[in-house]
Every structure is written in structure tokens, then in C-alpha cells.
Design goal:
The protein is mainly α. Strands 1-2 form a two-stranded parallel sheet. The longest helix has 11 residues.
């Protein structure tokens, strides 16, 4: 969802701190429908060259409440 929004926004340059081992959208561009691949073809996506501590911090922040969110979603069923 966020990758489609980035493509629609016209943003062409993306810098990220940490690889998303849970399956970040950047990895899915190549398997998106052809129209999205075409629209996203001009994206310049690159990982920032930072110390490993920054990557760990970014990952910890991104998943800080993932378990809590997962429980909320499961309780909706």
C-alpha cells in the first residue's frame, strides 16, 4: 500500500535505513501489475550508508508495537 501511494505521489527518490525482512514494498515492485511497474520505473531507491546501530534502531522503532497490533487484528475476527 505505501509503495503504491509513493508512486502516485510523484516522489521519485527514496532513501531507506533498514531492509524490511518482513517484506517491504520495495521488494514487491517487480511483481506488481505491469501498470504499477511502469509507473514505478522512475523510482530511485537506495539504502543509506549508515552505521549498523541506525539500522537496528530503525527496525526496533518500526516493529515496536507489532505484537500489540497483531493481537488487535486477531481479536477482530
Amino acid at each position: 500500500m505505501c509503495l503504491a501511494r509513493i508512486i502516485n505521489s510523484g516522489i521519485t527518490e527514496i532513501f531507506y535505513i533498514a531492509d524490511d525482512k518482513q517484506g517491504g514494498g520495495v521488494d514487491f515492485l517487480k511483481v506488481m501489475p505491469p501498470i504499477w511497474q511502469k509507473l514505478g520505473a522512475n523510482l530511485n531507491i537506495s539504502k543509506m550508508d549508515l552505521p549498523k546501530e541506525f539500522e537496528e534502531l530503525a527496525h526496533n522503532l518500526a516493529f515496536a508495537n507489532a505484537e500489540q497490533i497483531h493481537k488487535v487484528i486477531l481479536n477482530r475476527q
